[in-house]
Structure formats: C-alpha cells, structure tokens
Amino acid sequence: MSVFANYLKRLRSNRGLTQQQVIDYLSENDTSFRSLDITTYSRWERGVTTPKISKQILVARIYKDDIKVLIDDKLSFKDAEEIFLKEYIGPTQDPYQLGKERVTLYEGFFPIDKKTSSNIISFHKNFLQLDVNDNLFKNHNVAFSKAETITGHLCGHLLYTFIPINYPDELLDLELQKSSNVFKKLDKRQTQGLSLFFISDYSPIPEFRLAIFLHTVELLKENIDIKYFITNCYHEEILQLYEQFTEYEVISKGKPVRKGGVKLFGKRYSYVRLKFKTENYLSAKPFLYLITHAKSKLEALRRNMSSKTNL
What we know:
Elements: H1 3-15, H2 19-29, H3 38-46, H4 53-62, H5 77-89, E1 103-109, H6 114-128, E2 143-149, E3 154-164, H7 172-177, E4 194-202, H8 206-222, E5 226-233, H9 236-245, E6 249-253, E7 262-264, E8 267-269, E9 272-277, H10 278-282, H11 285-288, H12 294-304, E10 308-309
Helix pairs in contact: 8-12
C-alpha cells in the first residue's frame, strides 16, 4: 500500500472522520478538491490510485500535518542532494573570496546600515534593473538576510516579505517603487492567506544560496497560510530546472537585455517574476527529497556561517 494511502487511513482514524467528512473539508479549503467524489477518495485510501505528489502535499497542509510523512524514508537523500547542489546551487561565482575569510550570516528586519542598503540598491538598479523606493529599506515588514565577511565584504543577500493572496500581481512593481504599505510580517495567529514574496536574493557563494533555499522550504512547509511563493528568477539554469520539474506562472518580466538574464519566448529579460502554488514548489523532484532534512541542514549551515539572527 502506498505511503499516501496509509496517511489517509491514519488521518481518518486519528480524527474519527468518515471519508465524506474528509472530502467535504478538503473541498471547503481548496477549490481543486471541489470535484473530488467518494469513489476517487476511496481508491486513494485503498492504494488503487494515487494523486500527484503536489495534491498529496496539499491534503497534508490543509490538515496541518507535517508533509514529511508523505516522503518515503527509503529515498536517497545523498543522491538527491548531489543533484540539487550541481543543478540548482551551482559552483562558487566569487573565486577571489572563497576560503579567505569566514562568512557570517545575519538575519533580521529592516532598517539596515547605510553601506549595505547602498549595495542592495545598486544590485536592484544595475543587475536586476528594478526600481525600488528608498523607503523599502526602512520597512519593518521586510525581512533581510545577508552573508558578510569579517572585513565587511557583502557576499549574499535576501529580501522577502508577505502579501495578501488577493493583491494584484501586476501592482507589485508599483508597490516596490512607492509606499510598500501592502507588505506584512508572518503572523501565525492570522488566518488570511498569504504569498511569500522574494523581492530579491543573490549570492556568489553556494553555501548562502543553499541556506536561502532551505529557509524557503522551511517557511513554506511550516506555514499552511502561505498559499503562493513569488520570486524573481534571473538565471537561465534555474528557470530550466523549474520548467523541467514544477509548474509556475510568469506574472512579470524585467527589462529587455541583449546578454545574460533569462530567455523567455525568444526574448531575453533581466529577470522574470514567477509565481508558484506552494504545493507545486515543494513537490518539485529535486526539492522533495531534501524536505525531511531541510531544518537540520539549515541549522548546520547557520552554525558553520556564524549566524546572528533576529527573526
């Protein structure tokens, strides 16, 4: 019998639910289950058929269960990690700094120091070609992480926040250029659906890129109210990986460029903004096998990078 079939049996047994009660609750919480009938559900529970892993993850998230229960323990974490590190994380892109200085990871919220904010503004203007208002760097609802050497060399950053799921995608750029009043902190007491919005992230060192990914997984995995993940993609290899393993929607494009950036429908852009359903992102094959180890892996990276957190 499949892992998912056993999960459904335990779900009903532990909560004292009928099959119809499970169906009704799923359909109330997500429109994708509106067409689920008793015959299909019964086949799932008996292991006759199994829905795709993204739908399995959605069931567990709706019932606020740890999605790790859906992942087969026999899967090889080591092989998956090696594939992921090669295809997604990639090699170092800053060979002059590699191994010379210890890197410290800082995590907190804005505002930040003037030197770092100046570097991040330059990144948005010159690399992403994305206009952002200076007030963004004073917004207490924007979380900020950076990797920095002891001499103050910035070697990675992440800016993220949360927005209501009903906020129009096409207004995000305008929000970055103006007041940013729509941005929110994650409040586990609220029940309103949210989108996790990565305003920008970059690092030439693979350890920080891996830390960003693992932090993303933990945020999505642990918070059922995060329904979508929005991020700017500016590497061709990453976009190809997404195209191969998961589903997403392109909701915005950066400025046209002649070289670099990402190619979409025959044209190159400084970045493309992608929107994932949380369950689709978590179910991407190279990511899925890492989920059970994401927390311990992230904690180890934080220790190795001398982490200082205020999140």
